[in-house]
Design brief:
Blueprint: E1 2-3, E2 7-11, E3 14-19, E4 44-48, E5 57-58, E6 60-61, E7 70-71, E8 97-99, E9 110-114, E10 119-124, E11 129-135, H1 142-145, E12 160-162, E13 169-172, E14 187-194, E15 200-206, E16 209-217, E17 221-230, E18 234-241, E19 246-248, E20 251-254, E21 258-261, E22 266-269, E23 272-279, E24 282-292
Antiparallel strand pairs: 1-5, 2-3, 2-4, 6-7, 8-9, 9-10, 10-11, 11-12, 13-18, 14-15, 15-16, 16-17, 17-24, 18-23, 19-20, 20-21, 21-24, 22-23
Length: 293
Amino acid sequence: LDATEGSRLLLDGKRVTVAKRQHKGRPRKLAKATLKLTKGVHKIRFEYLGKSEENNIALSISGPGILGKQWLSDQPNTDNYAKPNVIDLTPKGQYAVIYNNFINGTTPRSLGVAYPEGQNYAFSTQNCGLELLWRGNFIDAGRHWTGRGQGAEVPMSPVVVDLSKTIPFSVSKKALKNWPDKADTEVQFDGYITDKNGRPAFNYSVGNLKVVDSITASNDGIIRELKVVSPSAQNLAFKLAEGGAEANGKTLELGEKLSIHSPADYQESKAGTFTNLELKKGTNAFTFKYLWN
């Protein structure tokens, strides 16, 4: 919500948010609000001040069934009006987009990646793990690429799946029955390389293991391939989700949104759902499919 002279938005008679008057020489601040609507019809009222001839207003919505942001204007007025700084980084061609900045819902050291197939994710270089997954539009970089760039950007999608918020690996001699209460394995991010279309493959260490984590995309979701080089035969426990998931053999259901298909059976614990990967000496390869329901 934005207005030159000031405005406010009401839902069913209750104030939702207020956009204060814009002062010359000061950066524009958009008013935002998140609402949980019940099924049925709701009354929306938009009030604004119009003290000058150059008064302009803007209102957009996003939510289930809406791709990105939808502006509630048939013919936007561009005269004497500075539009909100929306910089949509959704891929327009065949190349992937990598966003190296703060993303809401993941660690400060994370990379956002978007593929032309409409699949997006946040990879934490701090935890060496896939932490967010969403589809549709990618990221609005307006917050970071204009002004002082404070805060974290929110994915431009109403459907964002939270996966893991901690180090998702544990190395042991035998298969685990329960996930450790505390992190028992150190990880180290070693960078990434991209293919000819800009799609990254992440390199990192997990204890004494070397891992190459490659993610490709289709219209149905993403395919994740882990290549693990081990100096000896051992077990790698790999956590794929924290809470809110239901395991059925090699399939993990995250509500009605997403299913994750694993090469090995899942184990459930209080800390999340994981799978035990049996490693042999040398190079081991494992494939995981994250598919939208």
